[in-house]
Specification:
Blueprint (H helix, E strand, L loop, with lengths): L7 H8 L3 H8 L7 H13 L6 H8 L4 E6 L5 H16 L3 E6 L4 H13 L4 E4 L9 H8 L4 E4 L9 E5 L1 H14 L5 E5 L5 H16 L9 E3 L7 H9 L7 E3 L3 H13 L9 E3 L16 E3 L2 H17 L7 E4 L2 E3 L8
Parallel strand pairs: 1-2, 1-3, 3-4, 4-5, 5-11, 6-7, 6-8, 8-9
Antiparallel strand pairs: 10-12
Helix pairs in contact: 1-2, 5-12, 8-9, 10-11
Amino acid sequence: MQKKVITIKDIARMLGISKSTVSRALAGRSDIHPETKRKILDLASQLQYEPNTLAINLKQQKTNTIGVIVPETINRFFARAIGGIQKQADMAGMNVMICQSNESYIAEKKNLHSLVSSRVDGIIVSISTETDRSDHFVSLTEKGIPLVFFDRVFEDIVASQVVTNNYEIAMEGTEHLIEQGCKRIAFVTGPEHLFNSRSRLSGYLDALRKHNVQVKDSYIVHSHYRSDKVEEYTRYLLNLPQRPDAIFAINDYAALEMIHIMKKSGLRIPQDVAVLGFNNENLCRFVEPSLSSIDHPAHDIGASAAEILINHIRHQDLKPEKRVIKSNLIIRESTEVK
């Protein structure tokens, strides 16, 4: 048999006092006689009283909950970002409701609808690779629901953003490869409609032009962050009339798969082809050769997004903010050609 849920009314009846007195005592108010307050708290503890959070939230018109939409939770970058969001939410005494779009525009719209229907106080989003229009987010801002984008953002929506220095770090990574003597540098980037993909590509191109290295369209591959096409585009690059002598990969897992394929083809890393990854996964240090990568501060990005959102929730008149979290180049054996 289900145990009866204890309410404020039950405590008030047992002690022969008003519900308002019990409510004030449980809320920690000081306008109650200390002895009365002690009796109320002792009885509440004895009866294992739990406050009705739903009722409190409805009364305050707040759910004390942050909604989060990420492309996928299996991706370590987003897992770490969620960790940063959760930490900030815990410090603020807020709950977190997490949805994943599985890189689907349709799923992302459904996620958004579910979170809005659940009356979350604000939403943090990193858009899917399929998302090339922003109408579903525009309607959200029109309703006055606080919104923060992180990593994958929209430029045409008036909302706060947390991003990394994609342009600068792509330029720095490309210049590192040039400094190693590489002249035929291939670049694997994400979908063209995503802001971070375009920023990284611009950094790569500007680095080549700065150092008078020829730009070849055949060395630029547009892919997806979660792609089953790594072997296909690796074979394509290796079969070019002038094979690349360096590859700047879309992420570390793609880089490691490319290295595996190239080794099986008899190529040496980095002597024949230098390889640079992105995200600085833990395993980069333990493969042979160890993988150079871009350290993408996911936890800090997530924490900053949550901090900004909580500020927007508490201060509705705040203007949108853009915060840039710096990424860093980590040099290991896979690019040390010299």
